[in-house]
Amino acid sequence: MSSHQADGTATEPDIPPLGADTPGRRADAPADRRNPPPATGRRARFQSPGIRPCGGGRPVNLALQGGGAHGAFTWGVLDAILADDRISIESMSGTSAGAMNAAVVANGLAGSGDREAARVGLERFWGAVAHTSRLSPFKRGPLGWLTGSWGLDANPFFLGADLMQRLFSPYELNPINHNPLQSIVEEQVDFDRVRRCDRVQVFVTATSVRSGRPRVFRHDELTADHIMASACLPFLYQAVEIGDEAYWDGGYMGNPALWPFIYRGGSRDIVLVQINPLERADVPKRARDIINRLNEITFNASLYREMRAIAFVSRLLEEGRLPPEDYKKMFIHMVSGGDEMAALSASSKFNTEWQFLTWLRDLGRDRARRWLDDNARHLGERSTVDVGRTFLGAGEHHSLPPWLDPASDPAPPSSADAE
């Protein structure tokens, strides 16, 4: 069953028995997916009445991952989507940098649904990030410029800071809790507009320090503190306190959370903007590389879990074991940075040079445009990413990994073998 905070806000539901409100279940089956009837009960918490997606394209849900400066890739993806009339954004779920991008877009779309205002807002936001950090010592050195590397692995200030955060907490190193991103978010986003926005839903995930549960905030309650809570890396910044609770980065429990899309009804299509690598070809050997890979695995864990639940419900629907009038099949899509993003070192997440941010933006634009050209016609009809192979480890021509597929079980011994 769903767990709730003291104020009644639902956190991520445990997967209950079939017949209860499992991921994929809906209380009704509206004929018009773009105009579902208002939800009631638990689902109503994630249903914002009167949402009017701007544009006449196919409505989609956007899942925006966190990843520091790599969030500029998501900027490019959003820019391409906002410039394309084939789809419209119904909802966004974001964590960390993904939450910041989502808030900026909602700020631009609020009121008249001006997509161009949202695009301009994204450029101003990332421009402010680069401008604020122009005097930061965390820059590439001459070797980085010569080799074309975007990482900071040879920067002595970055290496020193990396060592210090392993020895001292942010309460010791940063007692005044200075975070330059806080002022940027406050200056670039009018949260009164975001809270009144009826053009798109926004869900922002943070991790409760005390309970370890995810906490999803809706756009109609968002402030800069909620965004900073979603982006609070515990080795860099003090926990963000909101009310009686303290929060760390939402990526630990939802990078990003997908289940609000399912519980709130509406569009079946989820487009994941993936900036956190799922796989690595090599086994890390250096201490920093091991820690970085462990962080990637940790931040992908909740995504794998939710994809497994979605695949489970989809399979039961395909086999006729669940009533289609009560459950909906979600269609999964993914825009990825591919080899270019995978080749970036983890230290480049702290590189906020304008040249790097615009390189990421241009890569995101290119990947999004390619994805739209290849897959926009399939929205509302089928997934364009193989969930089984990508997230569950299934082989080619199989929807399940061998350890879950009954068809791969060895045959029982025959009576002749027993003799």
UniProtKB/TrEMBL annotation:
It holds the Pfam family Patatin. A motif (GXGXXG) lies at residues 66-71. Keywords: Hydrolase, Lipid degradation, Lipid metabolism. GO terms for molecular function: hydrolase activity. Residues 62-262 form the PNPLA domain. SUPFAM superfamilies: FabD/lysophospholipase-like. Residues 23-35 have a biased composition (Basic and acidic residues). This is Ferredoxin reductase. It comes from Caenispirillum salinarum AK4.
